[in-house]
Design goal:
20 helices, 9-stranded mixed sheet, alpha+beta, 3 domains, 11% strand, single chain
Amino acid sequence: MVEPTIVPRSAHTISRRDIDPDALKVLWRLHEQNYIAYLVGGSVRDLLLSRRPKDFDIGTSAHPHQVKKIFRNCWIIGRRFRLAHVKFGSKTIEVATFRRQVQASELTPEEEAALATPADVVAPDEALPPEPDAASTPRRRATDHLIQRDNTYGTPEEDAFRRDFTVNALFYDIGTFSIIDYVDGLRDLDARLIRCIGDPEVRFKEDPVRMLRAVVLAARLQFTIDEPVLDAIAAHRSEIAKSAPARLLEEYYKILRSGHAEEAFRQLAATKLLKEISPELAAGPEELWQSIAMLDHYRAQFQGAPDSLTNAILAGTLLVPLGLAGRRQRFSADPLERRVELGLLPIARRDVERLHQILVLQPRLMDIQAPHRVQRGLLHRAVIDEAITWLEVHGDRADVVAHWRELQKHPSPVHHALDAVHPHGDREAQPGPFRRRRRRRRRRAPLTR
């Protein structure tokens, strides 16, 4: 039993005004039902650093079926460790039950939710199936440190110690407005240090993706990585090949959406993790780094990651400079020939096909002198929004982008002409353009015999 450091409200800078209102609703509702409810993880870290958190995640003593009973707008995600998604419109607040340290699943609840299929989702109006029996779930292999799966819950202390880094294991208690620290995360936050919870060598063998996260987190926060962590990465970086490719690819997309992708990938290259995952990127030309820098420049315009940065655009940022995608590439009808891989990472075929459509449109978007009818026809293409975003990120033609954004707002030239002649009049009262009436086909008289 570890006695935590508790920082009262008067001694820290987190205010409820800085917490998402919907996250506060969830915290208060759980607290009113006599469950422990904490703001957890990166959101507490970012608030203490005066940064806007990307997500507001909640840890609670309530089990998933109890969370579902409290919130009518609750979806349950995952099979092994069930994560509750409480939805407010397009916004999702993730609620996870506290878990044990030693018996963790290979994927965290958040990662399992990100990779979940529709069969793993329980809607609010559906009954929650019984949880799998812990005795029947596979356990850790005796010859391997890699943790396979489990589905047991724990206390807040156990939940803190099962997390990856000390700065990610801080809790904010809605009941007392205090910060709870079991792992000296506040000290490391002041020292701007990324330190592993427990022995880095053991933790990286349990989950090799933690090596990638340590480097990326240090790059994004501009922190220093603890020496034992760097030593463990150097010794076990080849273990990253044991991780699920889909999970690694999702981590790449998170990096590209972060706004600090260039620094993160350069640090991954310095620690040689990039060579283990994607040798093509490690040996990439200068055009690759320019492409990533352009993406960071575009991302800096937004407070959070915009929806316009789809997977196709993110994949293209890496693939096009490497010559693995582009207008000069022959597009085959054979699905096997359209397969694109970045080292260990298979790029989804749907994203490759969508990227191809985006790149094909680029020359036509540049021709803003084309007839208006032709330009309006392009607006009906399914990928037109992504094609314009690609032009904005990588085209370096702000005037062309502005032209197409304006055309999306006012696609009809007739409205422009009417506005110029009658700026304050009733548009519907004005006569429309002359339309030729179709002549009806004359019916032939029946033949007489």
